[in-house]
Amino acid sequence: RERMWGSSPDLMAMIDPQGFFLDINPVWTTVLGWDPRQVVGKRIDAFIHPQDQASAEDALARATVGVLPTFECRMLHADGSYRIMAWTAAPDDQTIFAFGRDITADRERSEALAQAEEQLRQAQKMEAIGQLTGGIAHDFNNMLASIYGSIQLMQRKLTAGKQDGFDKLLDRASTSAQRAAALTQR
């Protein structure tokens, strides 16, 4: 038992039912920077993030009557920062045995992955929008070219003093303008 207490990579603590530390293993110094003399005798809330206090009190109450399933909270490091810890605990007479694992790095990796996935989704959306707008612009340019071409042909005919075929050119320009308007509405 003493070898496990001294060599475990996880935090171990013995806590009374009121939440006061009775003993902690040496890894507290490695993981959270606290010397056992700075922790033993203090209540758990001295080391738990203020926003996690209520859920920690609930977890303590549950741990006094039975095995506590995994509970996560932010624990104060001696340098003033916080580490995310995953705790399990079990009662034995007037002592709660708690085991905590630092999951801060796992959380940071998960958050970084989630951010990267969100950025990828945004990039894919922007690419799709770019392709869509490029296709629309191409179609719109084709319609404008038809309108402009019809107008140019009518101008040439007017300059030459001819008016034959105007109806066909006006119909072509009108149809293209209507298609362009419909495309713009969509």
Brief rundown of the structure:
The protein is an alpha+beta fold. Helix content is 56%, strand content 20%.
Low-confidence stretches: none
- Helix amount, in percent? 55-70%
User: Radius of gyration, rounded?
Assistant: 36 Å
Number of helices: 6
Order of helices and strands: HEEHHHEEEHH
What percent strand?
15-25%
Distance between the termini: 73 Å
Q: What structural class is derived from the secondary structure elements?
A: alpha+beta
Beta strand count: 5
The average pLDDT value, as a whole number, equals 89
Strand line-up of the largest beta sheet: 2-1-5-4-3
Shape: rod-shaped
Major sheet characteristics: 5 strands, antiparallel
List the keywords:
single chain, 186 residues, alpha+beta, five-stranded antiparallel β-sheet, rod-shaped
Task: Give an overview of the whole structure.
The chain is of the alpha+beta class. About 55% of the residues lie in helices and about 20% in strands. The protein has six helices and five strands. Strands 2-1-5-4-3 form a five-stranded antiparallel beta sheet, with helices on both faces. Helix 5 packs antiparallel against helix 6 (about 165-185).
List strands and helices in order, with pairings:
Layout: H1 2-7, E1 11-15, E2 21-24, H2 27-32, H3 36-39, H4 53-63, E3 68-76, E4 82-92, E5 95-102, H5 104-160, H6 166-185
Antiparallel strand pairs: 1-2, 1-5, 3-4, 4-5
